[in-house]
Amino acid sequence: MNDAGRNDKNYNKVTPEEFVKVIALMPSLLAAFLTPYSAYDYISKGATCYLSEDSTSGYAITADSELISVFSLPGARQGVAAVHSAVENGARKLDCLDTILVQLYSKLGFVEYDRMAWDDQYAPEKWDYDSFGRPDVVFMKID
Asked: Is-contact 53 10, C-beta < 8 A?
């Protein structure tokens, strides 16, 4: 680990199809935090998909520099490494739910520029209201 507190993982470009197969391994409780994109959706967004060498974490960056689909499989603890890699590969903005994710992204240099109140009609499938409530959607960017 370096002094930034991240593990140095190598992230490689993969096809959207490969990326979707790995994300499908996320437990449903955690998968609720990810927008459920298909391989076609990633292609339509002009996204470049990345997986760690061991396929335990990854992310995608859209054609307009939006960071999407950041994940780390249970036990991998690679979220920070994934975000560092994403920034190095051009990610400049994102949106996330106002949970510990906002703190994580803030520590990595992202700043909030807007937020939107939770709306039940857009709740992720299988959202656990008892565990996670109704957090705002937070929009963040990095310079």
From this structure: yes
